[in-house]
Amino acid sequence: MKSQSAQDGARNALEALLLEFHAGALEAEQFARRLIDEHVFLPVRDDKRQIAGFQSSTLADPLVVSVEEGERVLVLFSDPSRARDFLAHFPDYGGGMLVELSWILRRMGAGLSISINPDQEPGFDLDPDMVAMLVALLPEENQ
Question: Which tens digits make up the pLDDT trace of 22-45?
Fold first, then answer.
């Protein structure tokens, strides 16, 4: 059961989970197993040939930024409204998709970090080793 303090300020289940973890109410593995099933907002580059904000391509171009020492970070948000201010700096990324984190983990390349709600609370950053650990927790896909 979620504590009341974990629910305060949470817009959705992912934010409640982040707040619970930051409050120390969850063990790391329990947090990781729950995190992979949560929905995130994945900003994608607009397809200029189509309707703004609507991704028609099956090859979505997600927002990946380079930070210190060339580290590449996939930027995600717990809710589309959390993305607005950040995406103002990336005008080509007006679209996005709500997907399970597990869907992203299965499709992303090795060596990427993930930032959920960068520079916001609640937020969370995962380095490439943490991302690899989450990938290892994924159940096998049905073929």
Answer: 999 999 999 999 999 999 999 999
Q: Provide CB contacts within 8 A for 129, sequence distance 6+.
A: none
Cα gap 75→82, rounded to integer Å: 12
Question: Could you tell me which of 67, 65, 66, 48 has the C-alpha nearest to residue 56?
Answer: 48
Residue 94 placed within a domain: yes
Three-class DSSP category at 65: strand
CA distances from 20 to 27, 39, 55, 102 (A): 10, 17, 33, 20
How much is the pTM? 0.85
Cα gap 42→102, rounded to integer Å: 12
Pairing label, strands 113-116, 124-126 = antiparallel
Total number of domains constituting the chain: 1
* Segment 40-99, tens digit of pLDDT: 999 999 766 555 555 455 567 999 999 988 899 999 999 999 999 999 999 999 889 999
Give the domain range for residue 103.
38-137
CATH number at residue 87: 3.40.1350.90
Identify whether the C-beta of residue 138 lies closer than 8 Å to the C-beta of residue 106.
Answer: yes
Residues for the chain: how many in total?
A: 143
